[in-house]
Amino acid sequence: GIGVGYPANVNLVFDAEQLRLATVWTGKFVDPGGVWRSQGHGRVRPLGDQVMQFAKGPDLDLAKSPWTVDDGRPPNHRFRGYRLDKKRRPVFMYEFQDMQVEDYFVDVLRRDDHSRALVRKLKLQTENPVNSLRLRLGSGKTIEKISPMRFRIDGKLNVLVDGEVELKKQTPAGQELYLLFDAPSGTSSLTIEYNWS
After folding, report:
1. Average per-residue pLDDT for the chain
2. What residues are paired with 30 via a beta bridge?
3. Which terminal CB of the chain, N or C, has fewer other CB atoms within 10 Å?
4. CB contact at 8 A, 21 and 27
5. For residue range 102-129, what is the model confidence (pLDDT) as tens digits?
6. How far is residue 26's CA from residue 14's CA, in Å, rounded to a whole number?
7. Is residue 151 a contact partner of residue 136, using CB atoms and an 8 Å limit?
8. DSSP β-ladder status, 186-195 and 116-126
């Protein structure tokens, strides 16, 4: 996992093995003591509040025939590293089949109510259209639909998205929320907001 702490006191872990948003939380960053004291074999734990752990498996996959999740690396996905923007925020880069993906998170601290958010921007590039894709937006014990574009996971994390959404119940992880879409040829983008307001 790649841990990222943002100035607005929102944090995330991106799983470069399975290409997913693994954890999000607010407040303090991490305690790396488990790794430092055990020669790299310990665990790093979040120090903040409202920690959300998401289910295993790649976030981006085919809607009709997704990879059967295990602890390994998905066969149709390949991590390509990351680059930093001008503010040193990482842009995660990976491939899914023949599609090039940039997965980028921006922290937001709203002045009016001091709420915090992570805005996730995905840039997709493909020569040929890819239909029937799904992007997992999150998972939890319960997911409540607040409005057609707003969902609340485990009563604490809001997910805002514009598009066709599928809520899957009774998965091993509990419930999972997906955005269903088609990727046209050329470049397209998706934007999702996670907030704790």
Report:
1. 90
2. 46
3. C
4. no
5. 999 999 998 888 789 999 999 999 999 9
6. 15
7. no
8. antiparallel
Answer yes or no: is pLDDT of 29 > 80.
no
- Residues 19 and 94: beta-carbon distance below 8 Å: yes
- Tell me what pLDDT residue 31 has: 60
CB 191 within 8 A of CB 135: no
Question: Encoding tokens for residue 3?
Answer: 């841990």
Number of helices followed by number of strands (H, E) in the chain: 1, 18
- Beta strand ranges found along 86-115 (DSSP E): 90-96, 99-109
Cα atoms in the 13 Å half-sphere on the side-chain side of 66: 17
Structural element, H or E, at residue 35: helix 33-37
At a CB cut-off of 8 Å and minimum separation 6, what does 58 contact? 18, 19, 20, 67, 74, 77, 96, 136
Structure tokens given for 173? 């992880």
Residues in the chain: 197
Among residues of the chain, what percentage have pLDDT more than 90?
Answer: 74
Instruction: Name the amino acid, one letter, at 56.
Output: K
**What separation in angstroms does the CA of 31 have from each of 13, 39, 55, 188?**
13, 15, 22, 37
Question: What's the rounded Cα separation, in Å, for the pair 23 and 140?
Answer: 11
Read off the pLDDT of residues 145-187 as tens digits, 9 standing for 90 and up.
Answer: 999 999 999 999 999 999 889 988 777 768 999 999 999 999 9
